[in-house]
Amino acid sequence: MADEIQNAEGAPEAATEGQAPRRGRGGGRDGGRGGRDGGRGRRDDRRPRDEDGGEELIEKLVHINRVSKTVKGGKRFGFAALVVVGDGKGRAGFGHGKAREVPEAISKATAAAKKSMIRVPLRDGRTLHHDGRGHFGAGLVTVRSAPAGTGIIAGGPMRAVFESLGVADVVTKSNGTSNPYNMIRATFEALGEQTSPKSVAQRRGKKVSDLIKRGGASDRAAEAEAAAVTE
Question: Whole-angstrom Cα distance, residue 130 to residue 106?
């Protein structure tokens, strides 16, 4: 009698033949832990990658602003983010997004920046080929090529653009407004006007060395410099 009481109260009931064993409290297949991964959740360590080339991208959060919308019940607050994205090899883009939360606004801005990426030809992969000016709204920016070792002489939003673009030596000047949106747009307008000697030579139907000779260089120096031009 005592053995029957002990089996009824202490030990769990054994599964009869043809009957599935009891599941845990969580109801999962893994003994009650719940979920395919045991309830611990998946850890996403993937970095942002370019959809075309599969390479890692450089993301720069330039500006974030809190915006509000007046509705019947009061004010509804949100956030606006401005993000610059580049691959560090001559491609960059910018985008902005709005959302109720900061992470969602940044993700929207990043997605918009990836869609608007442009390619800028670089000299020796470190600086611009020639000077340029960009104008948007009340913003006026000037960008100039610089010798090796100069560094990025730029401030605020313009520095984020050149860092994501992969430019190592450049001199810039911003006049007029300090609005980051207008400064970014003016900077990309100046970068969009950049051309390389190879593209100019192809458009004119000439060789790169012929264009360099017109600058006063000798034949050997022109040929050597033309051979070094990769873009």
Answer: 33
